[in-house]
């Protein structure tokens, strides 16, 4: 039976460590980390996600601020809030919750965020620093995947890691991080996507398979090598259920370890954000 890579268990352990670090900071007179979020509109998934982040902050001892703008807010109003947060020395880092309402230029808003406070790790300055191996904030979901693997003592060195999905948020940075020379790197990273011919031939070579394509049950048993580690980043709604990109019931019997959906990487993404915010309290470096 495959080992279950539980985000619930791993996130609780990481949050305890972060809480301890915050207590140590405060004991020597350092500032309390402060995470802010801008939420526009009332998208249920976005609202739930931001509420979860506020709860996380309370659990680990961070200060948190939620700036909730109406769906009717203009792009200029959002940029005004971004500028305020950029100039607020008490805020360690902040996020602008995606997706934005239709008609808003997400690139313009992203580029307005101070890279030193971009704890989502999406600003081109931080993406470039990541690619060059410089100190920076890692994109929260790939970072969460690394933290999940670290919690369970999984090694990536010398392994063949195949990532399915090439988004700038998950797939592309994941391939860079796994291929780098360093902790939880030194893998041979292959980046694939929906247009990759003979996809199953490649995924079946993977010691570590990371599914991040955004299509429910896309990865079937024929895509997976026996004994592989499978990490499912996908979160898809099918009817009333949340499901992953991996057909868990068919894949789980043949692999050595697998993350569930829900209860897997989604919880670890929030931990990645907390880790970035903790770092931001002292500056990106």
Structural commentary:
The protein is built from 10 helices and 11 strands. The protein starts with a strand and ends in a 5-residue tail after the last helix. It is globular, with a radius of gyration of 19 Å. 40% of the residues are buried. It is α/β, with parallel strands linked by helices and 285 residues long. The model has no long low-confidence stretch (mean pLDDT 96). The protein folds into 2 domains: 85 residues, Rossmann fold, CATH 3.40.50; 127 residues, Rossmann fold, CATH 3.40.50. Helix 1 packs parallel to helix 10 and helix 6 crosses helix 10. It has a 6-stranded parallel sheet with strand order 1-11-8-7-5-6. A 3-stranded parallel sheet has the order 3-2-4, sandwiched between helices.
Summarize the SSE layout with pairings:
Blueprint: E1 3-4, H1 7-27, E2 34-40, H2 44-60, E3 63-69, H3 75-86, E4 93-96, H4 106-112, H5 124-131, H6 140-151, E5 160-164, H7 171-179, E6 188-192, H8 199-203, E7 208-211, E8 229-232, E9 236-238, E10 241-243, H9 248-251, E11 257-258, H10 265-280
Parallel strand pairs: 1-11, 2-3, 2-4, 5-6, 5-7, 7-8, 8-11
Antiparallel strand pairs: 9-10
Helix pairs in contact: 1-10, 6-10
List keywords for this structure.
single chain, 285 residues, alpha/beta, Rossmann fold, 3-stranded parallel sheet, 39% helix, 16% strand
Write a short abstract of this structure:
By secondary structure, the chain is an alpha/beta fold. The chain has 10 helices and 11 strands.
């Amino acid at each position: 039976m495959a080992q279950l890579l539980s985000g619930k268990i791993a996130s609780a352990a990481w949050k305890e460590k972060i809480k301890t670090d915050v207590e140590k900071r405060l004991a020597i007179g350092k500032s309390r980390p402060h995470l802010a979020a801008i939420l526009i509109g009332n998208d249920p998934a976005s609202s739930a996600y931001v509420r979860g982040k506020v709860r996380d902050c309370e659990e680990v001892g961070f200060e948190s601020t939620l700036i909730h703008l109406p769906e009717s807010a203009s792009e200029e109003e959002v940029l005004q809030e971004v500028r305020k947060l950029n100039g607020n020395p008490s805020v360690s880092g902040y996020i602008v919750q995606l997706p934005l309402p239709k008609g808003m230029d997400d690139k313009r808003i992203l580029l307005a965020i101070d890279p030193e406070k971009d704890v989502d790790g999406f600003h081109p300055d931080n993406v470039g620093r990541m690619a060059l191996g410089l100190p920076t904030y890692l994109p929260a979901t790939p970072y969460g995947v690394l933290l999940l693997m670290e919690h369970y003592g999984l090694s990536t060195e010398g392994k063949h890691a195949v990532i399915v999905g090439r988004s700038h948020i998950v797939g592309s940075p994941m391939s860079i991080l796994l291929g780098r020379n360093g902790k939880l790197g030194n893998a041979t990273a292959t980046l694939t996507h929906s247009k990759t011919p003979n996809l199953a031939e490649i995924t079946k070579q993977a010691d570590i398979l990371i599914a991040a394509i955004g299509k429910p049950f896309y990865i079937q048993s024929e895509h997976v090598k026996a004994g592989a580690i499978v990490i499912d980043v996908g979160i898809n709604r099918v009817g009333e259920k949340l499901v992953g990109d991996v057909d868990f019931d068919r894949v789980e019997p043949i692999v050595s370890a697998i993350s569930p959906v829900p209860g897997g990487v989604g919880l670890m993404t929030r931990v990645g954000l907390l880790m970035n915010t903790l770092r931001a309290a002292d500056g990106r470096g």
